[in-house]
Amino acid sequence: MRAQTVDVRESSGKVLCCTVFRAGGKKLLAKGHVISEEDIRLLETEGMDQVWVTVLEEGEVAEDDAVCAVAQEMSCGCSEIRLAAGGRANLVATEDSCVLVDDELLKQINCTTSIVIATAPNFSYAKAGQRIATVKSAPFAVAQSQLEAVISILNERGPILQARPMRTPKVAVLYTDPTSGDRSRQLFENVMRQRLERFGTTASFVLSAVEDEEIVAKSLHHLARAKPSVILVASTTAPAGPEDVVGRAMTKVGCHLERFMAPVEPGNLLLLGYLDDLPIVSAPGCFRSAKPNVMDLILPPMLAKYRVSGWELACLGHGGLLA
To answer: For 94, 108, 147, 277, which has the most beta carbons within 10 A of its beta carbon?
Structure first.
């Protein structure tokens, strides 16, 4: 790649080295812009005879072409590519979705090339139209060999980012208390509504139950028959773990207990189990306040019907101090 001054009439197809301004200071053409015939007429109208441009050499790929190629290979799901000025390609969610990120692959790409990628956090909620990633290249051009290396890694290891759609998620809530399930509902229902509204949903199925193993098990079984995306157990007590009433009831209905305790504050006493592919979550104390807690981290993937593993919960410690 080389930079040079050329006559405006000879600049078609070349890339601007710097921003072109009108005499009054208003931007005319942006740095990195590929000059078209229409641009040439505009420049001549503004009285400009020469412009500072770059010329690609053999073995180089223009920045816009490079970032678009990477953006196409690095993502899947409900997203689209929108080219931006300065060698950028933005990925934008086309539906309400959960963003899933392969952090190790992202680090590898960002360490090895003249192309870098920034993404929204893993498990984060994205509304339709929200930017979820940006691919940026070195100015003007990227070596063909470097671009091919990036594409090869992505083809071999899969996408870095997935925008997993959250299509009509259904949440089931079981309110429990040692003496009266209705007491739990009265205490927590307002906060539950606020939390679910953050992710564009509401509670579709609601039950209240006394904290008795048999009663809680029957309530969980009844809610599971409605086929929700997730069952949330809002208890007024802080369980000791899988051995408490809620934990024993989850085991009684056939749950695989995936993980007890999460490295997140608030929310470290979370208990996650799966009834087949249906997640059931007990998170004592997390429904007393609308402030961020572990539920805000794990609800988006669950509402997108992504199976959160115990290992992924264990990885929430980095950034898990929420308050």
So the answer is: 147
